[in-house]
Structure formats: structure tokens, C-alpha cells
């Protein structure tokens, strides 16, 4: 239900905001969220060897963030059809069971995309090129959905979350990097900054790993 107002707002913003600007902002948000959760679900348990015994409490801040992602996802999906990553972030936190997550997302996309299909068809957004792409893409999407359901049966929740956040990282970073108006200087500064940040992060991770391994060996 929280998506619905966002979609209506998004229909208006479709003609008011630059798609490139929206993609940069959403790409940055999704990339940061994916990186944070990859640290939580991949780096901490597999590299640092740090296991959280208790589930973290669902605080007010977390709920505000979660519902904010859902509303914003509805807005950008209604405007540019790129709200999927943000809506996925909400659903991952709200729906813990992987099968329920799949079913929830499937029905959500049916509703959202049916609405967008009708609205954009009315606005003349359909072209021969788009129709041709749909003819090719829909059967492939069906095949992917079939194999995805089979694969889902073979993995546990932790593996499922790791895969989803890797996919979100790829989608978010691609959306961000492919829409930034790069210059030679900005590219160089970004590369240098990224190397420095990653080096510091790796140093901190392996330092914590060493401490945790020593604790285990001392037991």
C-alpha cells in the first residue's frame, strides 16, 4: 500500500525530473545499502569469523529507513521503472522467509508493471523498438524465473541473502557509474579514493580476523 502514493507521484515526475539524475541518486543509495549488507552477511561471518548470536532488534530508525525505501521505490518506479532495488531492500527486511520473499516480489511486480504498462501505453511511450525488445525479453524472463525457482530450493537463507545483495551491488553500481558525467580528472580522483578506502577497509578486516582467530585458539 505504501508504494501506491509513490507510484502516483512518480507518474507526475516522469516528465519533470531527468532520468539520469534519478539513476545516479538511486544507484548511489542501492550501492551503499548493498555494501553494508555484504559486510554483514559475507565479510563478518566468512572473513572476520564474527557471528552474531542474536537477531538485532527492529528499532524505530530501521523501520523509518525500511518504509522510506518502499515509498521512494514506488516513486522512482512510477517515474522511471527503476524502483526495484529499493523495493527489494524493504522486502528483504520485512519478509524473512525466502519463498515468501519470492512470492511477494512476484505479485508486487505483476501489480506495479501492469499499472506502468497501462499508463505508459496511454502516454504513447511504446515504440516498435520496445515491442521488439519485449518479444525477445519475455520468453527469456520466463526461462530465468523457472530455473530461479529450482535454484531457490537448494540454498539456505544466508546464501540467498548473499546472492541478492551481490546482485543489488552490481545493479546499483552499474546504474551509478554509467550515468555519472565523467571527466578525466573525476575518474582519476574516484579511482585513487576507491583504492585508499578499500585498502583501509581490507586492513581493518584482516586485523579483526586475526584478533578473532586468536580468541578462538585461546579457548
TrEMBL record:
The keyword Membrane applies. It comes from the Bacteria. It is found in: Cell membrane. The keyword rRNA-binding does not apply. Keywords: Cell membrane, Membrane, Transmembrane, Transmembrane helix, Transport. The chain crosses the membrane at residues 21-39, 64-89, 130-148, 160-182, 188-206. InterPro entries: TM_pro_TauE-like, TSUP. GO terms for cellular component: plasma membrane. It is a multi-pass membrane protein. Its main location: membrane. PANTHER family: MEMBRANE TRANSPORTER PROTEIN, TRANSMEMBRANE PROTEIN YFCA. Belongs to the 4-toluene sulfonate uptake permease (TSUP) (TC 2.A.102) family. This is Probable membrane transporter protein.
Amino acid at each position: 500500500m505504501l508504494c501506491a502514493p509513490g507510484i502516483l507521484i512518480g507518474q507526475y515526475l516522469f516528465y519533470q525530473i531527468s532520468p539520469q539524475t534519478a539513476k545516479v541518486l538511486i544507484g548511489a543509495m542501492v550501492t551503499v545499502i548493498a555494501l553494508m549488507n555484504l559486510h554483514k552477511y559475507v565479510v563478518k561471518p566468512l572473513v572476520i569469523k564474527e557471528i552474531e548470536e542474536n537477531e538485532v532488534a527492529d528499532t524505530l530508525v530501521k523501520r523509518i529507513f525500511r518504509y522510506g525505501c518502499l515509498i521512494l521505490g514506488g516513486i522512482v518506479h512510477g517515474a522511471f521503472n527503476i524502483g526495484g532495488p529499493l523495493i527489494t531492500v524493504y522486502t528483504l527486511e520485512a519478509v524473512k522467509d525466502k519463498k515468501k520473499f519470492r512470492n511477494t516480489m512476484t505479485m508486487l511486480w505483476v501489480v506495479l508493471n501492469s499499472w506502468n504498462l497501462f499508463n505508459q501505453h496511454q502516454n504513447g511511450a511504446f515504440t516498435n523498438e520496445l515491442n521488439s525488445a519485449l518479444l525477445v525479453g519475455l520468453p527469456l524472463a520466463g526461462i530465468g524465473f523457472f530455473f530461479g525457482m529450482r535454484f531457490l530450493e537448494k540454498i539456505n537463507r544466508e546464501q540467498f541473502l548473499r546472492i541478492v545483495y551481490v546482485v543489488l551491488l552490481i545493479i546499483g553500481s552499474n546504474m551509478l557509474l554509467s550515468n555519472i558525467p565523467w571527466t578525466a580528472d573525476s575518474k582519476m580522483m574516484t579511482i585513487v579514493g576507491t583504492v585508499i578506502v578499500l585498502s583501509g577497509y581490507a586492513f581493518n578486516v584482516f586485523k579483526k580476523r586475526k584478533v578473532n582467530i586468536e580468541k578462538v585458539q585461546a579457548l
